[in-house]
Design brief:
This protein is mainly alpha-helical and 382 residues long. It has one domain. 64% of the residues lie in helices and 6% in strands. The chain contains twelve helices and seven strands. Strand 4 and strand 5 (107-112) form a beta hairpin. It is globular. Residues 1-8 have low confidence and may be disordered.
Length: 382
């Protein structure tokens, strides 16, 4: 029903309640699953079955508060901090090498700044804001050799810092994927991107073939060891393939409807750190394929909402912010599920909103805040 005031059409702002509901549901579901998955390990090692739940809940509350602030701030405001966001991300990654950095489970990826912080998560948000601003500034000059060289170098610098300093391959892949997707969407010529994608697939296939033939071995790199375990997990059942095999056992034993919430056997010490990157396997075991498909469906609906918001955004900067967030979450979900099902080698990547990780959930909620801020700028007339 149309309404008029003063003879003029009245504009109303849009708010994506569907996206907000999905995020809230995934957060709540994640907390429930986290407690189910981690309670045994937490009680065994910390004497408190809710140890991981309490830490994640505190981070989630902080993230929600920050998300609300970001939602109601004009997203154009963040364009002013594009360069500081990029430089700040690089500095934080570099600080991992200082006494502020510390190691968890053999990986030095965190900073102790009075609270635990993973710089790679900060970098993902920084990269989204920085490259959204850069692409807008370049405009029609985006696809020139000079512009692409600058973008490529800027993206590779952050990705290499994440890879070399924190030894976090999955986050480095995500950063490159975010930039690639943002440039792809902003470009009007897709030929170069298909060529780059084809070359990337070819190089990956060559690496896998060389590992399979024994030319590249685990003695040369632990990443080659992961490929060996991926190709033949049974041969490394007591070592590198142990986690993958246990995850597959969990998925298979869940059948269609699962064993029931809290009834997993694999979480009882069989899958190391199950609350992190392998939590999807416990979802499959406890809730079955039905639960797994339900979770994947929610992520698909989330991606669809991102597409709707990006298509209707007020300007290119807003659209690119949404595309960057969409690329981040989509790539991370795909990689996590692919790792758990042994479709790709293990990269140690978490499932957004569900896996344990304080820094991850806070900065994911900041990204959702950016998307909903862009959505609020959309106006339609009655």
């Amino acid at each position: 029903m149309s309404g008029r005031k003063g003879g003029k059409k009245r504009e109303r702002t849009f708010f994506d309640f569907t996206l907000l509901f999905i995020v809230i549901f995934l957060l709540c579901f994640g907390l429930v699953m986290l407690y189910s998955v981690s309670s045994y390990d937490a009680n065994l090692n910390y004497g408190d079955s809710a140890y991981f739940l309490k830490k994640q809940l505190a981070s989630t509350i902080i993230g929600v508060v920050v998300m609300i602030f970001v939602i109601f701030a004009d997203y154009h405001f963040w364009a002013r901090f594009a360069v500081p966001a990029y430089i700040g991300s690089a500095v934080l990654i570099g600080l991992v090498l200082t006494p502020l950095g510390y190691e968890v489970n053999g990986a030095r990826r965190w900073l102790n700044l009075g609270m635990s912080l993973q710089p790679a998560e900060v970098a993902k948000v920084g990269v989204i804001i920085f490259f959204a601003s850069v692409v807008c500034r370049l405009g029609k000059n985006l696809m020139t050799s000079r512009s692409l060289f600058f973008i490529g170098v800027a993206a590779v610098i952050i990705a290499l810092m994440i890879l070399i300093i924190t030894e976090n391959l999955s986050s480095a892949i995500i950063v490159i994927g975010i930039v690639f997707m943002m440039i792809f969407v902003a470009s009007d010529n897709y030929k170069e991107f298909f060529i780059i994608g084809g070359v990337g697939i070819f190089v990956a296939a060559v690496f896998i073939l060389l590992v399979q033939k024994g030319v590249l071995t685990s003695e040369q790199s632990y990443r080659f060891a992961r490929i060996e375990a991926w190709l033949n997990p049974e041969a490394y059942a007591s070592d590198k393939g142990f986690q993958t095999l246990q995850a597959l056992y969990a998925i298979g034993s869940g059948e269609f409807f699962g064993k029931g919430l809290g009834q997993s056997m694999q979480k009882l010490g069989y899958i190391p750190e199950a609350q992190n990157d392998m939590i999807f396997s416990i979802i499959c075991e406890e809730l079955g394929l039905f639960g797994a498909f339900a979770v994947m469906s929610l992520f698909l609906i989330m991606i669809w909402r991102f597409v709707v918001i990006a298509n209707n955004a007020e300007d290119e900067f807003g659209a690119l912010l949404v595309v960057g967030v969409m690329a981040h979450i989509a790539i991370q979900v795909i990689l996590n599920i692919a790792v758990v099902t042994n479709t790709i080698p293990n990269t140690g990547i978490t499932l957004p909103f569900i896996s344990y990780g304080g820094s991850a959930v806070v900065f994911l909620l900041i990204e959702i805040g950016l998307v909903l801020s862009v959505a609020r700028s959309i106006r339609y007339k009655n």
